[in-house]
Specification:
A hairpin with a 2-residue loop joins strand 4 and strand 5. The protein folds into 2 domains: about 220 residues, 3-Layer(aba) Sandwich (Rossmann fold); about 90 residues, Beta Barrel (OB fold (Dihydrolipoamide Acetyltransferase, E2P)), CATH 2.40.50.140. The protein has 9 helices and 18 strands. Helix content is about 25%, strand content about 35%. It is an alpha+beta fold.
Length: about 325
């Protein structure tokens, strides 16, 4: 079993006296793919590095497979890691890079060959084993880094922004491949990213971090559809959730609604709200409208053929079931 449990982890950097992680606790089930997502400086990489044994917490514990590893060095934790930079050796061939961890572990040559060959096949690198990194594309080099991590058959796989150096199209393609590979391996995986599309598409669960704490953790659709606080709704989604003041009975609240949940028309409809188009952005699949409604700006996704442009009047409606309500003071979701 390779479940990971993080209990009350605190890490403060003396230079700033800021808590990079503020009493964080979470559990990752055996074989689960958990994504840590959040803006720069929220503590996600620090948390990953404490699980890896590359940072020492001020307090709290890390257990892997029920074993307390808080005081153990990284090499004794039974894990492997893929970094943002490829960190592969330029003077070694692809084959030698993939098998580097096995070499360090003094794995017998026949087993070494077999495991390297299997990892290369899984990552579609069999035709490149004799090449050096300089002869590979960025995507191929990242495959080498992943192959090197999985070949050692670690209990836990840690990934820190592994796709951020790839261009947008390659990142999307490799994301799909990575998801298939990790699912096939069944390895417990913690993955750090600032890219919310990556988080939503890859994770079995997503932990959204803010200012060193976990703002919300749940399945991708739970955190997207039912944000626990305004920050989560505003961070996840492109465009992010719309917010405007409203009321829930006698209570002043903040109302949130996703752009795709707002219906829009070029002609008046009973009980629909009137607004003015400020910007219309065709994106192919939709037209992203920026509307001015009263003193508020709303983002709305309209159908590709929607014809209204800047200055035009439109009418919109958000079904009550799509509305989310937050306390206007704390900005926490109301239940």
């Amino acid at each position: 079993m390779a479940e990971v449990t993080v209990s009350n982890l605190v890490k403060t950097y003396p230079s700033s006296q800021r808590r990079a992680t503020d009493d964080i606790s979470l559990e990752v089930a055996d074989g689960e793919f958990l994504v840590l997502v959040g803006p720069s400086g929220c503590g996600k990489t620090t948390l990953l590095r404490m699980v890896a044994g590359l940072e020492t917490p001020d307090s709290g514990t890390v257990t892997i497979g029920g074993r307390d590893v808080t005081g153990l060095p990284a090499r004794r934790r039974g894990l492997s890691m893929v970094f943002q930079s490829y960190a592969i050796f330029p003077h070694l061939t692809v084959k030698q890079n993939i098998g580097f961890g096995l070499t360090m572990a003094k794995v017998p040559k026949p087993e070494w060959e077999s495991r390297v060959r299997e990892a290369a096949e899984l990552l579609d690198l069999s035709d490149y084993l004799d090449r050096h990194p300089a002869q590979l594309s960025g995507g191929q080099r990242q495959r080498v880094a992943v192959a090197r991590a999985i070949v050692v058959d670690a209990d836990v796989l840690l990934m820190d922004e592994p796709l951020s150096n790839l261009d947008a199209l390659l990142r999307m393609q490799f994301r799909a491949e990575l998801k298939k590979i990790v699912a096939r391996l069944g390895t417990t995986t913690l993955y750090v990213t600032h890219d919310q599309a990556e988080a939503m598409s890859l994770g079995d669960r997503v932990a959204v971090l803010r200012d060193g704490r976990i703002a919300q953790i749940g399945t991708p659709m739970q955190v997207y559809d039912q944000p626990a606080e305004r920050f989560v709704g505003g961070f996840l989604g492109a465009p992010p959730m719309n917010f405007y003041p409203g009321s829930d009975g006698d209570r002043e609240v903040l109302v949130g609604v996703r752009a795709e949940n707002i219906e829009v028309s070029t002609s008046p409809r009973p009980e629909w709200q009137e607004a003015q188009v400020e910007v219309a952005e065709p994106t192919g699949a939709t037209v992203l409208l920026t509307l001015r409604w009263r003193d508020h700006e709303l983002k709305v996704q309209a159908a590709p053929g929607f014809t209204a442009g800047p200055g035009d009047r439109v009418w919109f409606h958000a079904p009550p079931s799509s509305l989310r309500f937050f306390d206007s003071g704390t900005t926490m979701a109301l239940t």
